[in-house]
Design a protein that fits this description.
Length: about 150
C-alpha cells in the first residue's frame, strides 16, 4: 500500500529538512531532476580534499525526495567522496535489487526501504544521491584540470 512508503518517519524527515538554501561560494553545484514526477534537487557542495566541509540544497520534491534530502543534509558534512559514491550505490541496490539499507550514520535510509515496491518513486528518492555524486565529480574534475594544463 502507498501508505507504507509515506510512514510517520518519512513525513517527519520531509517536514524538517536541514541546510536548505544555497551556499555563497560552492566548489560545485549539481541538479538532479525526475522527468516522471517533476521533482528537482539542486545541491551546493564544498570539499577539502576527500571530505565534504559544507552543503546546502534547494529541494522541490515530493515527500520521498524531501526525506532522502533531509537524511543527506543531516549526515553529509564530514563524509568522504568514496563514502558518498558507495552510499548512492547502496541506496540504488536497496531500491532496485532488494539490497539491504545502509547502516551506521546513514541507517535512517531504512525508512525509505518500502519505496522499492513502487518503481515510479525510485527516481525522486535517488535525486539527492545523484546530485551529490555529480557535484563530487565536478570538484574532482576541476582539481585535475590545473595538473593536466601544466603537464
Amino acid at each position: 500500500m502507498l501508505n507504507d512508503i509515506y510512514n510517520k518517519r518519512i513525513i517527519e524527515l520531509a517536514g524538517n529538512i536541514p541546510r536548505l538554501g544555497r551556499l555563497p561560494d560552492p566548489d560545485a553545484t549539481a541538479t538532479a531532476h525526475s522527468k516522471l514526477c517533476g521533482s528537482t534537487v539542486k545541491v551546493d557542495l564544498k570539499m577539502e580534499g576527500e571530505k565534504v566541509t559544507d552543503f546546502a540544497h534547494d529541494v522541490k520534491a515530493c515527500a520521498l525526495g524531501q526525506a532522502s534530502s533531509s537524511i543527506m543534509a543531516s549526515q553529509i558534512v564530514g563524509s568522504t567522496a568514496s563514502e558518498l559514491r558507495e552510499l548512492r550505490e547502496t541506496v540504488r541496490k536497496m531500491l532496485k535489487e532488494n539490497g539491504a539499507p545502509p547502516e551506521g550514520k546513514w541507517e535512517e535510509i531504512k525508512f525509505l526501504e518500502p519505496v522499492r515496491d513502487y518503481k515510479a518513486r525510485h527516481a525522486s528518492t535517488l535525486l539527492t544521491f545523484d546530485a551529490v555524486v555529480d557535484a563530487i565529480g565536478q570538484i574532482e574534475a576541476k582539481a585535475k584540470q590545473p595538473a593536466a594544463a601544466q603537464g
